[in-house]
């Protein structure tokens, strides 16, 4: 499979993020640093399925079409690519496809080319992330069938956190469960942290071995990462993406006794309890209104008490974890906000920063008005530099896949030279 890849021509690489009913994609020409196409297939396997697609710098177009499964969705996406304007793409030109895989477990600590052995291990890891990994694997299998000449590369959200020390990733439970089942903190959002930390280092004047940074990835799923010298030393999510801060529909940290109490009192299965904690909790559960922070901010402004409480709990949860990470790092040099809420909510950023004055954080109110743009928003008097950096996980995935494609193209060339 690997040796069918062509080594000639520009380095065109696709980045895929497959969810249960959606596929997000971007096609890059990495040599030109150009996005050739982008889009999302939505409501896969459901009524009203569609693809929102754009080629080059064109505006998005909506194509309503039945999408029975991930392979059918990707087949439609590839047809749109080959019919695209102004310059259609030949599928044979796509050298590699980078797949976001949420959980690499203990097997994978860097991006890998997918072969049968890797695919088998990925399927084993699905037990660690049953809400994510199975759909990531569906995307890989579909692309192997539809693009047999392209290298399939798995890029892991957990890999960035491989540098967390054992005293931070171990749980205080019998160690046999770590040895038998790999029960430990893994952390997530690593692809985002990898991109944002690299960009932050560029804006701050390069990496320093003793630099202390906290990145706040605040989207529907929210987590924090403490970095020293650009390396992850701790993060808020744990064995699963359920742990850590309060989130949109996830509870974050709760007393484990709550799980047993709900199961016994409500006669619920473990799967049913997880459904509640993953999809019906967080600010949605608190407010009884919405998991969308834009709705909550609007409702709180109109006096909706539970919406206001949900926002206060979210900010308090962030503050508590940030304070812990400042202690872990021994101080703070930079604070970075990214992802949907982090990039687009001046109110949340202001509330969090107001609680970090003890650490030397001072926000510039005027600079903080920005939404969705890269900027430094700290005041000149701030001892801590505060940045907003829009994340680009797709670009990071494509770059990782492109690097492996180059490596294998080089090996292919050497093999050809040996065989004459």
Question: How would you characterize this protein structure?
Answer:
This protein has 420 residues and is an alpha/beta fold. It folds into two domains: 2-156, ATPase, nucleotide binding domain (Nucleotidyltransferase, domain 5), CATH 3.30.420.40; 206-389, 2-Layer Sandwich (Nucleotidyltransferase, domain 5), CATH 3.30.420. Helix content is 39%, strand content 19%. The strands form two sheets. An eight-stranded mixed beta sheet has the order 5-4-3-2-1-6-8-7, sandwiched between helices. It has a six-stranded mixed beta sheet with strand order 11-10-9-12-14-13, sandwiched between helices.
How would you name the oligomeric state of the polypeptide chains in this document? single chain
Helical amount: 25-40%
The N- and C-terminal alpha carbons lie at a distance of: 21 Å
Uncertain ranges: 1-7
Taking all Cα atoms into account, the compactness measure Rg is 22 Å
Determine the strand fraction and express it as a percent band.
Answer: 15-25%
CATH fold descriptor of the largest domain:
Nucleotidyltransferase, domain 5
CATH architecture annotation name of the largest domain: 2-Layer Sandwich
Secondary-structure element sequence? Answer: EEEEEHEEHHEHHHEEEHHHHHEHHEEH
- Tally of DSSP β-strands: 14
For this structure, what is the CATH class of the largest domain? Alpha Beta
The neighbouring-strand order within the major sheet is 5-4-3-2-1-6-8-7
Major β-sheet, in short?
8 strands, mixed
Number of helices: 14
Number of domains: 2
- The geometry reads as globular
Query: What would the average pLDDT be, to the nearest integer?
Result: 90
């Amino acid at each position: 499979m690997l040796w069918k890849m062509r080594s000639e021509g520009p380095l065109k690489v696709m980045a895929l993020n497959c969810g249960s009913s959606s596929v997000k994609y971007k096609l890059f020409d990495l040599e030109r640093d150009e996005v050739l196409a982008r889009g999302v297939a939505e409501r896969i396997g459901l009524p009203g399925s569609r693809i929102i697609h754009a080629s080059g710098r064109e505006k998005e177009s909506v194509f309503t079409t039945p999408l029975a499964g991930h392979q059918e969705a990707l087949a439609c996406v590839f047809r749109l690519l080959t019919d695209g304007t102004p310059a259609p793409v030949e599928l044979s030109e796509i050298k590699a496809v980078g797949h976001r895989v949420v959980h690499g477990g203990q097997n994978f600590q860097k991006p890998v080319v997918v072969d049968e052995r890797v695919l088998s291990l990925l399927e084993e890891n699905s037990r660690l992330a049953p809400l994510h990994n199975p759909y990531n694997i569906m995307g890989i299998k579909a692309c192997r069938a539809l693009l047999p000449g392209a290298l399939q590369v798995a890029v892991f959200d957990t890999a960035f956190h491989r540098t967390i020390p054992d005293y931070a990733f171990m749980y205080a439970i019998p160690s046999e469960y770590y040895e038998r089942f790999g029960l430990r903190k893994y952390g997530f959002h690593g692809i985002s942290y990898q991109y944002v930390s690299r960009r932050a280092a560029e804006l701050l004047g390069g990496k320093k071995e003793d630099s202390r940074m906290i990145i706040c990835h605040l989207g529907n799923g929210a987590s924090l990462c403490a970095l020293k010298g650009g390396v992850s030393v701790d993060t808020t999510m744990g064995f699963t993406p359920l742990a850590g801060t309060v989130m949109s529909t996830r509870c974050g940290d709760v007393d484990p006794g709550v799980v047993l109490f709900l199961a016994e009192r409500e006669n619920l299965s473990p799967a049913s309890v997880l459904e509640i904690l993953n999809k019906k909790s967080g600010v949605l559960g608190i407010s009884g209104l919405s998991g969308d922070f834009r709705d909550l901010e609007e409702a709180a402004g109109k006096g909706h008490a539970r919406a206001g409480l949900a926002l206060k709990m979210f900010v308090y949860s962030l503050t508590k974890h940030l304070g812990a990470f400042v202690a872990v790092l021994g101080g703070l040099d930079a604070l970075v906000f990214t992802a949907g809420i982090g990039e687009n909510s001046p109110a949340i950023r202001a509330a969090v920063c107001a609680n970090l004055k003890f650490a030397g954080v001072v926000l510039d109110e005027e600079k903080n008005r920005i939404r969705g743009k890269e900027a430094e928003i700290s005041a000149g008097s701030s001892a801590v530099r505060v940045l907003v950096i829009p994340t680009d996980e797709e670009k990071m995935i494509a770059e990782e896949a492109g690097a492996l494609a180059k490596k294998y193209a080089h090996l292919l060339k050497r093999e050809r030279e040996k065989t004459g």
